[in-house]
Amino acid sequence: MENMISDIDPHDMIMTYHEETKHYFERYARSPGYMDWDNQPNPFRRFDGAHLIYLPLLSSNSDPVSPQYDDLYNTHSIDPQPVTIRTISRFFEYALAVSAWKQTGATRWALRCNPSSGNLHPTEGYLIAGTISGLESGPGVYHYAPKEHGLEQRATFAEEVFHALMKGYPHDAFVVGLTSIHWREAWKYGERAFRYCQHDVGHAIGTLRIAAATLGWKMLLLDDQPDENIEMLLGLNRKEDFFESEPESPACIAVVFPNTWDSVRTPSLALDPTVLNHIWNPSWFGKANRLSRDPSFPWNLIDTVSTASRHEATARRATKPSKNIKNHNCVDESHSQKRVLSAGQIIRQRRSAVAFDGKTSISIESFFTLLARVIPRSEHNPSWRPMPWDTIPWDPSIHLAIFVHRVTGLTPGLYVLVRDLNKLSALKRSFHPHFLWQPATHEPKDIPCFLLEKGDTQELASRVSCGQEIAGMSSFSLGMIAEFEPMLQEHGSSFYRRLFWETGMIGQVLYLEAEAAGICATGIGCFFDDPVHQLLGISNRTFQSLYHFTIGGAVDDSRLTTLPAYDDKQFTR
To answer: pTM above 0.90?
Structure first.
């Protein structure tokens, strides 16, 4: 079987997977078709035998104090914090921690700061760091345990090895890593699960970057790092540590550092391979726990696409950090008013809505403020990228087809947000020729949103989103349209995963912006792929819909009780 797979072109394998996992009106992608509750995966991975270091949970009024939410998007408005066990704790708390527990009857489940499809959480987080003040265990590889808010020490190594590994980066930099456990999603969603795992990686990249911003830190995705090296760094290639337990697949690593670095430097997008190949030899601890009674993988197509989308060694690139422009905002002050909102509060209160009321409207000002946050560059300074878009090195590849239902001052209908105006002509060629392409409004001028067609789109939005009313009962919903086959041809088959990562990052920004606007949001992974394309006029694979989203007034379920994320006894002052 392995020889047969290796003989197939990875691009063809990606295309096969993508087509096979589309939903249609007459059929859905292959899935179990029922919920095998006895085999439901444990949402918390632990490494038995690895030392667990509890991180200090900081109260809301303890240092480092949470900045204002809108300040996250303003360069230099947040003083860089030193890297200590307390700031590392806050970093993981805002990025990957439990945000609350929900309970109904005897059933209890956790919510987290990083969203997840079906709340199944296939994404695992890691830390690779040298000596950190207050972290007595010293340099090592750590797995983040969200239920305990702690770090499991998976490996130790000498300080000089870490310095060699991080040569070319700031002296106080550290590395974070993300992996995926495909089985957690496949248990429920079958073959389409690989897509959802990649959405979740994108959400986690977003939460990590935003958490870094709260501390005045920068983050850069090391996008030239081959998967083989990520496996080596995080210990994923150690089969003895995952014996009879569900494996973890490498996603990405990123370097994080306080925002005090000279912007003229050009860091590599990969760690030094000579260090990895010659002196990287940590001492490892712990065995991965088994998450399901029967952790089998009946979905061979997931194995196939995982192999096809692996990131192999490439020519090492360099990138300049985003230019630091004093007091530069990604939202022009002419259409955005400063909101007095705590970033920590917004991050912790984020929820995925389960129903909308069908009547809540948002103002046109709120609508365009929200859209401005997902535009990855400034029209006035194209070389500058706002947070969180400064963390990824590729040009924007995702555009938004928006179903506007209830936006005060805006005509209901179908719109498109072109996140890169260089792609406007390509979108016009691919979409229906009868579309209007009228600017949605004269203000703000720097938001390229266009009206395609007027009309009530509520029923249509719900129908293409697998009949889910939540897409039509919202203030607006949207489909994330990717520049698809041309980007795969240009960047290779591993860019398939990165397209989904970008959609997840957009989703995370939308989640927080919805909370800041006093409403709520939810991601929609279930939609009818080609019917969406037909609605827009897309007839080939130049563009493809990868993720849907909807935002509006949430309806709370009174049957649910909300409980604190952690015991009060764990908090420090």
So the answer is: yes
> DSSP readout, 447-475?
--EEEEEES--HHHHHHHTTT-GGGTSSS
Domains and CATH numbers, the chain: 2-57+64-101+109-308 (3.40.109.10), 349-552 (3.40.109.10)
Angstrom distance (rounded) from CA 546 to CA 21: 11
Give the pLDDT of residue 185: 96
Report DSSP state, residue 78. Answer: S
C-alpha separations of 20 from 28, 262, 301 in Å: 10, 47, 9
* Cβ 52 vs Cβ 340: under 8 Å: no
Residue 329: the pLDDT is 38
At how many degrees (to 10) do helices 364-373 and 495-516 cross?
150
Cβ-contact 112, 100 below 8 angstroms: no
State which residues of the chain have pLDDT below 50: 1-5, 264, 315-336, 573
The answer to whether the beta carbons of residues 41 and 34 sit under 8 Å apart is no
DSSP 541: S
Question: Alpha helices, DSSP H only, in 321-436?
Answer: 343-349, 364-373, 424-430
SS (H, E, C) 488-506: HHHHCCCHHHHHHHHHHHH
Question: Residue 567's pLDDT is what?
Answer: 83
Say how many Å lie between the first and final Cα of the chain, rounded: 57
